[in-house]
Specification:
Helices cover 68% and strands 9% of the residues. The chain contains 26 helices and 13 strands.
């Protein structure tokens, strides 16, 4: 390694130019990385709802309804006029209203009440629309301009459009505040006014390179787009900080800058690589999720950390040496006080904290696995947003509602009519639009106009649009989805297709819950193996992984005791993110303890270790905490906000356990974890 580091140091100008070129190219490429905001697109390709949607798209022109629009104080003719205007909006594939489900030439009293009140009630008209995903923003904006702010819009197309509009500006705010906070933290923890700018510069290069190379994925999810860069900032900061602190230590021994940097790289390689590898592996565990957001986020984050490691080992040494003289001129007095006293406090509190840890860990584990969950995107926007208020207004007037689309082979009208009768018997089915319901089984297809026929039948399938009085996500909804599937299976075994927002959410629940054990097992096992190889101990990996897992369990137990429901996707992702992000702190603490233990007795080794690493750990941990909480409090998307809260709170909990509990565990298990040669002094003081 020394030869490689000598080569990097001796060719620092060439290395800097190379990274400048790569940075410029990737900065340009970032603009070509597309972002997917539809969470349902990440269902496995073999999921029933995904296959059904593909079939429906190929067979029919109108998509699945993904927007509900309510216009108040309108007559039937006025509602028809609104419908005509909606149909002319670019990107609107279809608009369904009362005239599609009943003969509006009849008196309203002659129309079935359940059908009538699905679309028209108390002078308000409720339209069900399908909007092309390419036009979510312009279409919803035009529809809003037609209906005005006094009327209401809801549905997945609307929520996705809002997410697309808000995310970019919100992430820009988060990034600006995060960079300012990082700058302040680095000023407090470094000895030169220039070093914080150098660290931010190195991180910025790594983040831009990662963003540009995301082009290899074609597109990334909105979760990755929103959280990827700020997570890379929070996770990778400590690598540069570790290197700078080692560099300063080596220079304080009287070494010239070149030799000091080479020694610093050699001394910090083990800690930085161990930290980086465990972080990369923790993120890569998400690749084993069948739900596509996991692999999407995991690959992007793992690649980002790998790029950060390359930047720290290649670019940062060159940058630090090129600016070394200027950095020396801009040196200032060390701002933070000596932490020897803090080390003594930790030493005294270590054993009591281990006792508290032992008491808390089992209830935390049980509570973390007993939460209530949201699986889909229904609750992504809170009740205090316009989307939340609009959704509540529609639900108050027309009740909670969702639309399923059932496709069955269209060759047997009698069987289709029998299926329709059985479906109507199911609870919460409000209305159906199909060939046999709307036209009648006795009417031959050739008697219909082509437009009406195309909406109900294709060459291979007959389409049944089912409106159900259930929310998009609930136990009642999932039960209804299964009963519709069972009913269709009875008549068309293996031949039917069922799609819709609730159907996708039902499949999402099945997919993500089956991912949980697999992802956690892979993450823990992989990190454990890496720690065994790098620490060359079996006991230490158990202590380190258990410490961080306990922080994860406590983090996930908080919503249970608070009585809050959480997004299962955030619950699933945070386990790998917190393990990968914060196990670094435990590795640094352990490495320094073993290093100090070579020359000091146990108690003094604990004090010195805590004094040595607290600044580095708090620097990284506080940044991860702040970027997480910024995401939590600024993002209007509740899934992203909840993920941010988990990240921020998880970083604090990991910090507390690493700084107060881990030293006690290392002290208690010292004889099993520290290999040393006995000498007279050791025999006396140990």
């Amino acid at each position: 390694m020394r030869k490689l580091y000598s080569f990097i140091v001796d060719n620092r100008i060439a290395v800097t130019i190379l990274f400048a070129i790569i940075f410029t190219v990737c900065l340009f490429l970032r603009g070509y990385v597309s972002v997917n905001y539809d969470i349902n697109d990440y269902l496995p390709p073999d999921a029933h709802s995904t296959v059904s949607l593909d079939v429906m798209t190929s067979e029919f022109t109108g998509g699945i309804p993904n927007a509900r629009v309510m216009v108040e104080n309108v007559t039937i003719p006025e509602a028809l006029s609104y419908k005509a205007r909606f149909e002319k909006v670019e990107g609107v594939l279809s608009v369904t209203w009362l005239d599609d489900a009943a003969d509006i030439r009849l008196p309203l009293s002659a129309i079935d009440e359940s059908v009538l009140e699905t679309y028209y009630k108390d002078g308000a008209a409720l339209f069900s629309m399908s909007i092309d995903e390419e036009y979510y923003i312009p279409a919803t904006e035009e529809i809003r301009s037609i209906i005005g702010d006094d009327n209401a819009m809801s549905g997945s197309a609307t929520s996705i459009a809002i997410t697309m509009s808000n995310t970019v500006s919100e992430i820009a705010k988060i990034a600006a505040v995060a960079v300012l906070f990082v700058l302040i933290v680095l000023i407090l923890t470094t000895d030169s006014w220039l070093e914080p700018l150098l660290v931010l510069g190195g991180l910025g290069v790594a983040i831009v390179i990662n963003g540009g190379t995301n082009l290899i994925f074609g597109e990334i999810s909105f979760v990755t787009n929103a959280a990827g860069s700020i997570l890379q900032l929070g996770v990778s900061l400590d690598y540069s900080v570790f290197l700078i602190h080692r560099f300063e230590e080596c220079r304080s021994r009287g070494l010239a800058p070149r030799e000091a940097m080479i020694d610093a790289l050699c001394l910090s390689t083990s800690s930085i690589l161990s930290s980086g590898l465990t972080t990369v592996i923790g993120f890569l565990a998400l690749v084993f999720m069948r739900f596509g957001i996991g692999p999407d986020l995991g690959l992007a984050l793992a690649k980002g950390v790998a790029i950060s490691l390359i930047t720290v080992f290649f670019f940062m040494p060159a940058l630090l040496l090129l600016t070394e003289k200027l950095s020396d001129k801009l040196r200032h007095r060390h701002i933070l006080p000596n932490l020897g006293a803090f080390g003594k406090i930790v030493r005294r509190a270590a054993i009591p904290m281990v006792c508290v840890f032992a008491v808390v860990i089992i209830p935390a584990y049980l509570a973390s696995n007993s939460n209530s969950y949201y699986y889909g995107s229904l609750h992504i926007f809170g009740d205090d947003t316009q989307f939340g208020r609009d959704s509540a207004a529609i639900d108050d007037r027309f009740g909670k509602s969702d639309t399923f689309v059932l496709l069955v082979p269209g060759s047997d009208t009698a069987k289709e009519a029998a299926l329709s009768r059985d479906l109507h018997k199911l609870p919460n089915i409000k209305s159906m639009i199909s060939y046999v319901d709307t036209v009648g089984a006795e009417i031959p297809p050739e008697y219909l106009d082509p437009e009406t026929l195309a909406a109900l039948r294709s060459e291979n399938y007959s389409r049944m649009v089912i409106t159900a009085a259930v929310p998009v996500e609930s136990e009642e909804t999932f039960e209804l989805v299964q009963r519709v599937r069972d009913t269709a299976e009875k008549y068309y075994p293996g031949e039917y297709c069922l799609a819709g927002q609730a159907v996708s959410t039902y499949d999402m629940m099945d997919t993500v819950t089956s991912d949980m054990i697999k992802v956690n097992t892979v993450a823990i096992a992989a990190v454990f193996i890496v720690l065994i190889l790098t620490l060359r101990s079996v006991v230490l990996p158990v202590i380190l992984v258990l410490s961080i897992e306990a922080a994860i369990w406590i983090n996930l137990a908080v919503p249970y005791f608070a009585g809050d429901s959480i997004f299962y996707i955030a619950y699933l992702i945070i386990s790998s993110i917190q393990l990968g992000s914060t196990v670094d702190y435990a590795i640094l603490m352990t490495d320094r303890y073993r290093e100090n233990r070579a020359s000091l007795p146990k108690k003094e080794a604990v004090v010195k270790t805590v004094s040595d690493v607290t600044v580095s750990i708090i620097t990284s941990g506080s940044v991860l905490t702040v970027v997480g909480l910024l995401l939590g409090f600024i993002s209007s998307n509740q899934l992203l906000a909840q993920l941010g809260i988990f990240i921020g709170r998880g970083a604090v909990l990991s910090l507390v356990i690493v700084l107060f509990v881990l030293p006690g565990l290392l002290y208690l298990f010292d004889s099993l974890t520290v290999k040393r040669k006995k000498n007279a002094r050791e025999n006396i003081v140990s």
